[in-house]
Design goal:
Mean pLDDT: 85
Helix content: 40-55%
Strand order of the largest sheet: 1-3-4-2-5-6
Number of helices: 8
CATH topology: Rossmann fold
Order of helices and strands: EEHEHHEHHEHHEH
Number of domains: 1
Largest sheet: 6 strands, mixed
Number of strands: 6
């Protein structure tokens, strides 16, 4: 998990719930609609929202930790977070969504829970951090629902977009880094750990998710930048740094 820690224009004795924090350590996490029409310009917004998307096992969490460390070394105000989760409410929702003992969770319920977690994260964490001038690094955001529920669950794009519009409140990403890795390669990275409910889905499901992310990469939307997730962690980090420099944002000077 990544520690919890925003753009311009998916039990007994509970463990502590990760909530938003600054710095590079670890714990949390976090997606965004592909349609740029959902972006609402906010003159009060001073921060930067960078989201990270990709199939299972694509190295997003490791990448975010490395990037947060690089930015913190420059004295930049960084907040890392994740989806689903990132808030006390969101983490409770996450525990339901990823619980492998709940395979009967229907696609519509899954989508609504994802969006509920997202709406809470945006209002409790993302918007305040952007207003405070922070760099928000989010592990998954609204694009995750486009890929996982819209494509993977075959619920379709229109209903996902409508719900994302409602949840995001204009907090669209400045940049989305797509960590592309074929599903079979991602599964090999699970190691010996037990997969969660989504990771246990069929190969066909994960292929649909991967195809949706590839479609985003080929959409021509300048918000999306593709990373080769087959590269080692250091190589993936350097790819991400190169794309961040392209934003030419004051918060990224010297990166």
């Amino acid at each position: 998990m990544i520690r919890v820690s925003g753009t311009r224009r998916n039990r007994p004795r509970r463990a502590p719930i990760p909530t938003a924090k600054s710095g590079s350590g670890s714990p949390t996490t976090t997606t965004t609609p592909t349609r740029t029409s959902t972006t609402v310009a906010d003159p009060a917004r001073r921060g930067l929202l960078v989201t990270f998307e990709g199939p299972e096992g694509s190295g997003k969490s490791t990448l975010i930790r490395g990037l947060a460390g690089r930015l913190e070394a420059l004295g930049r105000p960084v907040l890392t977070t994740r989806e689903p989760g990132g808030t006390p409410v969101g983490e409770r929702i996450r525990s339901v969504l990823l619980d492998p003992s709940l395979p009967e969770l229907c696609p519509e319920t899954e989508l609504l829970l994802m969006v509920a977690s997202r709406a809470q994260l945006v209002r409790e964490v993302v918007l305040p951090a952007l207003a405070d001038g922070r760099i928000v690094l989010c592990d998954r955001y609204a694009d995750a629902s486009v890929a996982y529920q819209g494509a993977g669950r075959e619920l379709g794009r229109a209903r996902v977009d409508a719900l994302n519009d409602f949840a995001l409140a204009g907090a669209a990403p400045d940049l989305t880094l797509l960590c592309l890795l074929p599903p079979a390669a991602g599964r090999r990275r699970f190691g010996g750990r037990d997969p969660d409910r989504l990771e246990r889905e069929s190969a066909a499901f994960h292929e649909r998710v991967y195809d949706a992310y590839r479609a985003m990469a080929g959409s021509g939307d300048p918000r999306f930048r593709v990373l080769d997730a087959t590269a080692p962690p250091d190589g993936q980090l350097e790819q991400a740094v190169t794309h961040l420099r392209g934003l030419e944002h004051d918060l990224l000077m010297g990166l």
